[in-house]
Design goal:
Strand order of the largest sheet: 6-5-4-7
Number of domains: 2
Number of strands: 7
Shape: elongated
Order of helices and strands: HHEEEEEEHE
CATH topology of the largest domain: PH-domain like
Number of helices: 3
CATH class of the largest domain: Mainly Beta
Structural class: alpha+beta
Radius of gyration: 19 Å
Length: 130
């Protein structure tokens, strides 16, 4: 629901708002620039949702692969420095490594098993709130 329902609802609202403000403007309707701002926000929201991993694969050689609908991020378990909750939103985690970070939903099958395998392979990783 969170991954597809919320962005879909925002998209429908943005399209409806754009239609009402451009194609059928009323006397007291907001200017079309507000609809444009809403559509830009909607696009950024969709990009964020499509980049968020839906699957995590731990390979035998120690590579960890985060798979999303539009990209794949592959790092080694030894590169991970921390896995912590996102301070701004509940239910999301931030995975940090030397060259970057990745935001993911804290809703994966066998996630605690994966965390224990990561901790076993990299004892220096900081895992909090998972």
């Amino acid at each position: 629901m969170l991954n597809w329902g919320a962005p879909g609802l925002v998209a429908l609202m943005g399209i409806g708002f754009l239609y009402l403000s451009v194609a059928r403007p009323m006397q007291d309707s907001p200017p079309p620039v507000f609809a444009l701002v809403l559509l830009i926000g909607m696009a950024l929201f969709w990009v964020r949702q499509l980049r968020m991993p839906r699957r995590i694969i731990l390979h035998e050689d120690g590579r960890l692969e985060f798979v999303s609908p539009v990209r794949r991020v592959v790092i080694t378990v030894q590169d991970i420095t921390s896995i912590k909750p996102d301070g701004s939103q509940l239910g999301f985690l931030i995975v940090r490594w030397g060259a970057g970070k990745l935001r993911l939903l804290n809703q994966f099958d066998d996630f605690h098993d994966l965390l224990s395998r990561i901790k076993q392979a990299n004892p220096g990783v900081e895992i909090r709130g998972c």
